[in-house]
């Protein structure tokens, strides 16, 4: 039973990872249909873990599940990008302001360790690990803001638009730019400069949206079924 559950989880995670990769790489275009029966047949499993994976991908902004049509790759336009990063900028900027007086020396050292790791990952061009560790950086100071409702709001918003954030960080030079911006943010925290910390975090979020609008968000491609090996 335990081995069966582990296999189920592994397959589900593999499906999640492969669909995410196909969407981020552009192999699956916006509006493309992702076939539940085809995936179930390909992996030799029931449709239940496929549906679970689809629900998670929908919550992260990768897929839209349409009744009687199935799952299609979600479409984002520049207005979606502007709206998301505007909200992210305001919420995280406020969190940075509140955190400025609350971050301990140990917290600041942790932020520096995380950012050093991000620099290494940027050099390796390891976008997947970078994305996970990048989340740790932001979550540390958001937690330090000591406002659980604020943290819940931020988590809810950023989880819904994971795809946009990953697309932004995937653009050439973006990871190292993020590392440099984090260094400025850490310095502002060390100096207890709440105004500067808020401004830098807001700027960091706004820049993420701007690089997408300058080159990351493209017109939707032709609608297709599942044409790639995922």
Write the layout of secondary structure elements.
Layout: H1 2-25, E1 33-34, H2 36-43, H3 47-59, E2 63-66, E3 70-73, H4 78-99, H5 105-124, H6 127-144, H7 148-160, H8 162-170, H9 174-190, H10 194-216
Antiparallel strand pairs: 1-3, 2-3
Helix pairs in contact: 1-3, 4-6, 4-7, 4-10, 5-6, 5-9, 8-10, 9-10
How would you describe what is shown here?
- This protein has a three-stranded antiparallel sheet with strand order 1-3-2.
- Strand 2 (63-66) and strand 3 form a beta hairpin.
- The chain starts with a helix and ends in a 14-residue tail after the last helix.
- With 230 residues, it is mainly alpha-helical.
- The protein has helices at 2-25, 36-43, 47-59, 78-99, 105-124, 127-144, 148-160, 162-170, 174-190, 194-216; strands spanning 33-34, 63-66, 70-73.
- The protein is built from ten helices and three strands.
- Helix content is 73%, strand content 4%.
- The chain folds into two domains: 2-73, Arc Repressor Mutant, subunit A (Orthogonal Bundle); 78-216, GntR ligand-binding domain-like (Four Helix Bundle (Hemerythrin (Met), subunit A)).
